[in-house]
Amino acid sequence: MEEIRKPAATLKDVAMRSGYALRTVKKVMNGDDSVRDKTREAVLAAARELNYKKNRLASALVRQKSVKIAIVYSKVSKAYFPEVQEGFRNFAEEYQDFGLSIEFFEILEKGWRHQCSVLAGLCEREDIDGVIMQPTSTTKLNDMIRELTSHGKPVITFGADAPASERICYVGPDAYRAGRIGGQLLANYIGKKGNVCVVMQTIEHMQTIYRKHGFTDYLQEHCPKINISELTIPDDSDVYSEMVSQLLEGNPDLNGIFCTDANTYLVGELIRKAGRQDIKLVGFDLSYEAIELMRQEYVDVIIDQKPKLFSYVALETMFKYVYNNEQPEKKIIYTDLSILTSECFSLTGIRL
User: Fold this and answer.
1) Which positions fall inside the HTH lacI-type domain (predicted)?
2) Is 26 found in the same domain as 147?
3) What is the residue-wise DSSP string for 146-195?
4) pLDDT confidence tier of residue 352, bands split at 50, 70 and 90
């Protein structure tokens, strides 16, 4: 038999059970030090008996506290970041009546120094209550994150992490696990033997580093007949195309490529131009270009990070922390991944 859920206890219920006035009960629940110990104990005992749980969001609304959160990221993918923005906006719209607002800081230049400059400006912004950021370096922004924290602006990282910094927590995919998944998929596509190359960019980026380690660890553990090489490319789109083209031309025995960054669609296009449909390609980030190349069988698998999901969770976590000092349960909050092939087009909501 299905259990019937009883209505949640209210402050009025606690007042009736304890025998104290509603005003006194509210003082106890809000931590007012003026309440005598005996009274506080009686009210809290009544609350426990009724299994009363404080509605923190309602309390925040009553206080009419306004909060502005800065969201800082470098735009490196035209498909990835619109979904990131949508996730943030979805949560902000749901809780705008609670005084929540967000401000985006989109950094068009590549490199951690540009991001550091924007963060330095936020330290002086009195209207900013917290910062959610996707760090462009695993280590080089730690001092700036510490500076933000010292100015009373807590930091949450999303999508990429600075694990040794003073950030509250990280929200996003498990990059190492994503790399292992990529290794398993590519190994199965090429029959667990042959030659594969890890194509990577911005080696200071946590996602790139952990994805590479996960990929190589899986193959070394399970596929000893696969030879692994690496191609590390500077942060320059022209050089990227040139170096990948040279890789394809100079390695006729190459069987597979694992692309650790958002340029999977670009690698797929270069494979198409080189006429190397024999190469299997596994990479990240869904886009119209990637889907078209998947349809033509130049991209085999996209590991979708679900950016709309983890950006929503990141803002939700920051909102709870700033309003109620509600600490995250974990320092690392991992979100789900999706594995997409050409057969999944109808499930993505994207039409060609």
Assistant:
1) 9-63
2) no
3) HHHHHTT--EEEESS--TTS--SEEEE--HHHHHHHHHHHHHHHTTT-EE
4) very low
Would 347 be classed as within a structural domain?
Answer: no
18 and 30 co-located in one domain: yes
Q: How many CB atoms lie within 10 A of CB 55?
A: 13
pLDDT (average), residues 71-79: 76
Instruction: Report the CATH number at residue 136.
Output: 3.40.50.2300
Instruction: Note whether residue 340 is domain-resident.
Output: no
Which tokens hold the place of 149?
Answer: 């924290």
Both tokens of residue 158?
A: 């999303």
CA dist., res. 163 & res. 184, Å (int): 26
pTM of the model: 0.77
pLDDT, residue 281, reads 98
If one counts the domains in the chain, the total is: 3
Higher pLDDT, 253 or 110: 253
Burial call 179-207: b when 16+ CB within 10 Å, e when fewer: bbbbbbbbbebbeeebebbbbbbbbbbbb
Report the run of H or E that residue 232 belongs to, with start and end: strand 226-233
CA distance 133 to 139: 14
Q: What is the mean pLDDT of residues 259-283?
A: 94
Supply the pLDDT for residue 77: 62
Q: Which residue has the higher pLDDT, 19 or 195?
A: 195
Those residues with Cβ within 8 angstroms of residue 301's Cβ, 6 or more apart along the chain or in another chain = 182, 185, 186, 189, 281, 282, 283, 339, 340, 341
Q: What is the CATH number of the domain that holds 21?
A: 1.10.260.40
Does residue 312 sit in the same domain as residue 193?
A: no
**Residue 28: which domain range?**
11-54
Average pLDDT, the chain: 87
285 and 222 fall within a common domain:
yes
Q: What is the mean pLDDT of residues 217-235?
A: 94
Task: Check residue 51 and give its pLDDT.
Answer: 83
| Structural domain includes residue 346 | no
